[in-house]
């Protein structure tokens, strides 16, 4: 029998309703012992999860957070996504794949209460990307991500993780991905360079398709280390800008 573990005001036992604890914590209810430095109620969940490490209660709490991914309150859903983006290997994380593969009515077009510049679908896909980056090409989410990055405007939050999980597939489909989501180009250049690939050859392929990213020229010097490589990629980009629209 596992001994009870107390975290602030909560004592975890075999009878503890971990889903209720997670929900109350993420909703900011119940006086869980938040610190003045906390940015959001999820910070308490992170501390509790760390303190419970090595006990069955850690998995139970994580599974409780997974239940919160479908909570009616967008703030609760948002913070549950933050948890799994930070802890992609936590128990219950397969729910991220299920939600990304299914009906996203609770995510698509729903502004993130904590980051209003994006919606909860963006955050869901970012959590999927984080999972793929850690779990690799055997994860069921790879198929979901492959379909997603080929949809116009959807690749950015998940493309980095998909590259880590299935780099050869991403390289083969790079033009189609960047044509639909020009902002993914910079992320892919970072990934190619980190993987030791030919960043010039790859950059010349995708740069003409990055015309829709008004930040491309700004970020290129930050992500491509070699000055000669940067010049070659920028030349391909500016040539496409002068010639008009590019196609994959």
Strand order of the largest sheet: 1-2
Give the amount of beta strand, in percent. under 5%
Provide the succession of SSEs: EEHHHHHHHHHHHHHH
Percent helix, as a range, is: 55-70%
The poorly predicted ranges are none
Number of separate helices: 14
Shape: elongated
- Secondary-structure-derived class: mainly alpha
Q: How far is the N terminus from the C terminus?
A: 60 Å
What's the gyration radius in Å? 21 Å
The major sheet is characterized as: 2 strands, antiparallel
Global mean pLDDT: 93
Q: How many strands appear in the DSSP assignment?
A: 2
What this model shows, in words?
With 248 residues, this protein is an all-alpha fold. It has 14 helices and 2 strands; from the N terminus they run ββαααααααααααααα. Among the domains are: 92 residues, no CATH class; 69 residues, no CATH class. It has a two-stranded antiparallel ribbon. A hairpin with a 2-residue loop joins β1 and β2. The longest helix is centred in the C-terminal third of the chain and has 17 residues. It is elongated. The mean pLDDT is 93.
């Amino acid at each position: 029998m596992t001994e009870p573990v107390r975290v602030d005001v909560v004592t975890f036992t075999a009878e503890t309703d971990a889903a209720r604890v997670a929900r109350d914590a993420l909703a900011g209810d119940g006086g869980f012992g938040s610190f003045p430095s906390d940015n959001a109620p999820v910070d308490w969940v992170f501390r509790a999860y760390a303190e419970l490490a090595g006990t069955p209660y850690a998995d139970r709490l994580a599974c409780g957070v997974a239940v919160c991914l479908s909570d009616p309150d967008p703030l609760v859903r948002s913070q549950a996504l933050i948890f799994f983006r930070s802890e992609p290997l936590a128990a219950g994380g397969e729910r991220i794949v299920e939600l990304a593969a299914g009906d996203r009515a609770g995510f698509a077009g729903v502004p993130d209460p904590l980051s209003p510049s994006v919606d909860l679908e963006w955050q869901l896909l970012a959590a999927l990307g984080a999972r793929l980056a850690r779990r690799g090409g055997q994860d069921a989410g790879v198929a979901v991500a492959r379909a997603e990055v080929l949809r116009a405007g959807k690749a950015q939050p998940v493309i980095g993780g998909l590259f880590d999980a299935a780099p050869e597939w991403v390289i083969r489909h790079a033009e189609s991905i960047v044509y639909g989501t020009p902002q993914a180009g910079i992320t892919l250049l970072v990934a190619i360079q980190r993987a030791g690939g030919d960043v010039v050859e790859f950059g010349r392929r995708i740069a003409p398709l990055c015309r829709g990213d008004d930040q491309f020229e700004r970020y290129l010097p930050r992500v491509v280390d070699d000055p000669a490589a940067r010049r070659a990629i920028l030349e391909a980009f500016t040539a496409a800008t002068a010639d008009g629209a590019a196609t994959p």
